[in-house]
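Posting this for the archive.
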Amino acid sequence: DDDRRRRFDLTAPPLLRTTLIRRSETTELVLTGHHLVLDGWSLPLLVRELLHAYADIELPAPPAYPLHRAWLDAQDERGAA
């Protein structure tokens, strides 16, 4: 609860905080991030990569930057808001 209420200082890192909550039977990961680093596009990507890492699934190599840039330019910015 304290982490959720703590504001982000945009002039100093981190803009993404992680907290592990250990319970008797489970451990939970809580991500708290500013919208500057966790927007409508990046949050699902981060969650997918975390789930893959958790499941120990090998991820494909990231695309070359020019290909990624072309894909990014083709995206609908209003759809991500």
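The longest strand covers residues 16-22. The beta strands are 16-22, 27-33.
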